[in-house]
């Protein structure tokens, strides 16, 4: 399991760099991924962000509650686009739910960096 996590971490870092260099080709490759540790690592980074930001801002709501709301919203968004694509699938091509999970979770990396940098610089 430790080697799987390390391998997934290296893949996440590689994909992140490749997204900067060649975003279209990389996102197409990411949509074909099957390693579930990669989204778990990114979701874990987002959880760490929520816990970190909790100590920088006014503590109105617990960080875990905000994170849970984020995860629910994230999966509702993915489900919405997945169901919409199944509904309007004219080519009758098989559409995979994990493809949506991977592409949407990797799109969270720039957002995570943006939020983290503004949170640190705002202080």
Can you offer a commentary on this structure?
With 123 residues, the protein is mostly helical. It has one domain. The protein is 80% helix and 0% strand. It is built from six helices and no strands. The protein is globular and about 50 Å long. Keywords: Membrane, Transmembrane, Transmembrane helix. The chain crosses the membrane at residues 6-24, 36-54, 60-85, 97-122.
List keywords for this structure.
single chain; 123 residues; mainly alpha; membrane; transmembrane; transmembrane helix
Give a quick summary of the entry.
The protein is mainly alpha-helical. The protein has one domain. It is built from 6 helices and no strands.
Secondary-structure map with pairings?
Elements: H1 2-21, H2 23-30, H3 37-56, H4 63-87, H5 97-106, H6 108-122
Helix/strand order, N-terminal first: HHHHHH
The amount of helix comes to over 70%
- The total of beta strands comes to 0
Task: Kindly estimate the percentage of residues that lie in beta strands according to DSSP.
Answer: under 5%
Enumerate the spans where pLDDT stays under 50 for 5 or more consecutive residues: none
Major β-sheet, in short?
none
């Amino acid at each position: 399991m430790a080697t799987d996590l390390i391998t997934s971490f290296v893949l996440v870092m590689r994909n992140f760099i490749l997204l900067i260099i060649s975003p279209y080709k990389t996102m197409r490759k990411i949509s074909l991924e099957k390693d579930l540790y990669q989204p778990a690592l990114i979701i874990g980074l987002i959880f760490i962000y929520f816990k970190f930001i909790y100590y920088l801002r006014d503590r109105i709501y617990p960080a875990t509650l905000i994170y849970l709301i984020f995860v629910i919203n994230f999966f509702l968004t993915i489900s919405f686009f997945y169901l919409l694509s199944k509904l309007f699938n004219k080519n009758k091509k098989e559409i995979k739910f994990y493809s949506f999970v991977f592409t949407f979770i990797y799109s969270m990396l720039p957002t995570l960096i943006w939020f983290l940098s503004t949170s640190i610089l705002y202080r």
